[in-house]
Amino acid sequence: MGARCAYNAQVADDPEKAALRREVASLRHQLSACKAHTAGLPRDDAIATRIDYAQYPLSDEQLVSITARQYDPKPSSSRPELPVPTSNAAQLEADFVRWGYCVVGDAASAEQSQAHRDALRALAAGERARGEADVRCGGALQTVYDLPAQGGVLCDLVALAPSAAQHAPLLDALLTKILGPHFHLATSHGAILRRGAGAQQLHQDQSMVPLPHPPYPLFCNALWCHTDFDALTGGTYVVPGSHRANADQPLPLLAEDNVVVLTAPAGSCVLLDSRTLHALGERLVSGARLVTRALYAKGIMRAFGWAPSPDTVNDSSTPTLRRLLGVDGYFPYPAGGRKKNNDSGD
After folding, report:
1. What is the pLDDT of residues 119-133, one digit of tens each?
2. pTM above the 0.70 mark?
3. In this structure, is residue 36 part of a structural domain?
4. Sheet of 134-136: strands edge to edge?
5. Number of domains in the chain
6. 110 in helix, strand or coil?
7. How do residues 131-143 score in pLDDT, each as one tens digit?
8. What is the CATH number of the domain that holds 246?
């Protein structure tokens, strides 16, 4: 008996064996969870026999005519638990996972933000002068599309060049964690919002993806605040935490008493999970709100409505810009064929 007690004490004091016991307990728990999950799967005779994947519903079908302002949105700053501007990477990750967005503070310096404002105003003025401007809401909203083709500092901004934004490396690292190392640019544009615009329908940036969505975003929207965002100036409406909705939750219910107006100073960059419900802000004062939006995608997704052209990409384009524009493709194979190795690819 004494020898047995001594043996048990020796085993208990052995760190390696204690770790093995913990691992066995964890594996038993996982096995039990798997059995519980498979018990609820349909039997072979209950599985559908017709392909209907293309008929799965889209989130926009639940959100027709539902605008953010009908929920009496409050400033995000009125809820202390919500994200605030920061450059702390760990906090940004925690905010993004919990709330579906995070705010990178001082992503662009004051000088860089001024350059962004000047560039966007100049591009908008040029398009108006040429009669090419996309102007809506009675002139209160102008959008400037395809920023990489425009060149200049806004092209550098969406290409995440440190010369255009001092915290571009931090944003690049976050986007890589969100979308994977092969993420690319799906679309980008600048917008100038004046009083009279707004009341956009609540939506997701991956609303074209049938429900239920996977448990991760397929896109991530980078909103560059060139001017201050708040409840008066036209801050974006957001439904915090709506990215974590399960398949059985009606999306409009997520917005009830849960719509906020993003509060962030000029120079901030908001990273928005593409599953998070949001909408264009409404400006209530004179002046203009300036923003650049860059929607980045997982490498397997396609760009929105445009392809790189010789005017967009040339020999002076950086490797990062070429990757973001999809010039080099998803896999690092040489032009004209697959990478030569012993992998059959089957």
Report:
1. 999 999 999 999 999
2. yes
3. no
4. 101-104, 269-273, 219-225, 288-297, 184-194, 141-145, 134-136
5. 1
6. helix
7. 999 999 889 999 9
8. 2.60.120.620
